[in-house]
Amino acid sequence: MFGDTLRELRLSKKLTQEETAKIIGVARGTYTHYELNKREPDNDTLLKIANLFGVTTDYLLGHTNSIEAKKTPKDLAKFLENTEVMFDGEVHHLDEEDKQKLKNALEFVFWQAKEKNKRKKQ
Fold this sequence. Notes:
By secondary structure, this protein is mainly alpha-helical. The chain has helices spanning 2-12, 17-24, 28-35, 43-53, 57-60, 76-80, 96-121; strands at residues 84-87, 90-93. It has 2 domains: 2-60, 434 Repressor (Amino-terminal Domain), CATH 1.10.260; 76-121. It has 7 helices and 2 strands, in the order ααααααββα. The model has no long low-confidence stretch (mean pLDDT 83).
């Protein structure tokens, strides 16, 4: 059942219900109802839960037994369109200046990785 799966995932991350609720942006009581199967999250919240625990929504809903989320490449430009990002368990709101700083930092890291990969091939 959804609630049992949710509880197992939360405990595996050593999170309290309160912490989990805060991360996904719902009240603790609402989250508790999810674990007790008294309530179901809306689609947006379901996606936040899946992202938090690194699983697919199909896994959360019991449509598959595979716990692993598909490893699909993420589009950096699309990611940077978001004004909210989760880092270290906290949601951060980014303005245009913050998004540009993040983009610059990531471009630098990707450039270094590209150079490192070139050296390995030689």
